[in-house]
C-alpha cells in the first residue's frame, strides 16, 4: 500500500478489538464533550417525542386513557392524540425547512450560536407547552422541536469534520495514534441509542409518579436547558493548530 501511494509513512496496524476499545476510552477531550452534549440533546428530544401524544391527550385535552371507551374522558383523550399527531406533522415540516436553511445560517452565525439557539428554543418550547392550555399555542411550539432535531442530525457531525482538520486531533499513523473518522461518527451516533435506553428506564416511573405526561415535558425542558449551558461552557468548537500544542483548550464561551 505504501509503494502504491508513494507515502513514506508506516502502514497502519490492523484494527483489533483491543485497539478499538483503546480508541474509545482514550478519545480526545473535544470528542468527549461533544458526545456528552449530543447525548443531552437526544435525551431531551426523545422524552418529548415518545410522550407528546399522551401529553396532548391527558394534559391539553384533559382526557383519560383508562376511562371506559364510551365515556367522554376517553373521547377527549383520543381527540388529543389525534391533534398530537398533527403537532408531530408540524414538527416534521419545521425540521425539513430548518434543515434546508441551516447551511445558509452557518454563513452568518457560528456553530456555537446555532447550538445555543436550538437547545434554548426546544427548552422554551417544551416548558411553555406545559404552562399553556391553548391548543394553537401548543401546536405552534412544535416548530421548536424541528429546530433541535435538525441541529442534532447535522451540526455534531459537521463539527467532528472540523476536528479532523487538525492533525493534533487525528493523530499520526507513524506512532499508531491516528483515529478513524468512522469510529468517531459511530460514537456520536451511539448517543442516540443511549438516550433511548435511559428514557425507557426513567420516564415510565416518572410519568407514574407525576400522574401524567406533564413531568416528561418538564424533564425534556430541564435537560435541554442543561444542554444549552453545556454547549456554551464545555464544548470545544475550535482545536488549536499542532504548533500550539501547549496552549490550553478553552471553552468557547471564553473566546467571545
From TrEMBL:
Task: Kindly list the places in or outside the cell where this protein is found, as annotated in its UniProt entry.
Answer: Membrane
Bilayer-crossing regions: 39-61, 81-101, 113-131, 137-160, 181-203, 215-237
Q: What is its main location?
A: membrane
- List GO terms (cellular component aspect): membrane
Q: Enumerate the Gene3D superfamilies for this protein.
A: MFS general substrate transporter like domains (1.20.1250.20)
Topological type in the membrane = Multi-pass membrane protein
The superkingdom listed in its UniProt entry is Eukaryota
What InterPro entries does this protein's entry cite?
MFS_trans_sf
Alphabetical keyword list = Membrane, Sugar transport, Transmembrane, Transmembrane helix, Transport
What is this protein identified as?
Proton-associated sugar transporter A
Task: State the gene name recorded for this protein.
Answer: SLC45A1
Amino acid at each position: 500500500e505504501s509503494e502504491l501511494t508513494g507515502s513514506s509513512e508506516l502502514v497502519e496496524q490492523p484494527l483489533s478489538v483491543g485497539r478499538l476499545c483503546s480508541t474509545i476510552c482514550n478519545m480526545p477531550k473535544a470528542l468527549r464533550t461533544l458526545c456528552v452534549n449530543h447525548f443531552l440533546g437526544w435525551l431531551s428530544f426523545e422524552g418529548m417525542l415518545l410522550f407528546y401524544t399522551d401529553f396532548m391527550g391527558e394534559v391539553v385535552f384533559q382526557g383519560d386513557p383508562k376511562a371506559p371507551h364510551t365515556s367522554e374522558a376517553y373521547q377527549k383523550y383520543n381527540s388529543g392524540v389525534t391533534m398530537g399527531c398533527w403537532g408531530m406533522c408540524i414538527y416534521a415540516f419545521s425540521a425539513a425547512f430548518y434543515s434546508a436553511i441551516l447551511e445558509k445560517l452557518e454563513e452568518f452565525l457560528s456553530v456555537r450560536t446555532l447550538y445555543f439557539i436550538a437547545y434554548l428554543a426546544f427548552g422554551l418550547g417544551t416548558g411553555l407547552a406545559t404552562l399553556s392550555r391553548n391548543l394553537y399555542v401548543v401546536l405552534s411550539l412544535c416548530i421548536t422541536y424541528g429546530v433541535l432535531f435538525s441541529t442534532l442530525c447535522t451540526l455534531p457531525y459537521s463539527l467532528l469534520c472540523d476536528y479532523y482538520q487538525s492533525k493534533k486531533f487525528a493523530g499520526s499513523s507513524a506512532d499508531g495514534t491516528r483515529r478513524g473518522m468512522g469510529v468517531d461518527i459511530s460514537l456520536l451516533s451511539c448517543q442516540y441509542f443511549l438516550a433511548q435506553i435511559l428514557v425507557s428506564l426513567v420516564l415510565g416511573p416518572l410519568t407514574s409518579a407525576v400522574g401524567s405526561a406533564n413531568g416528561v415535558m418538564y424533564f425534556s425542558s430541564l435537560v435541554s436547558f442543561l444542554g444549552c449551558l453545556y454547549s456554551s461552557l464545555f464544548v470545544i468548537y475550535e482545536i488549536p493548530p499542532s504548533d500550539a500544542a501547549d496552549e490550553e483548550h478553552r471553552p468557547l464561551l471564553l473566546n467571545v
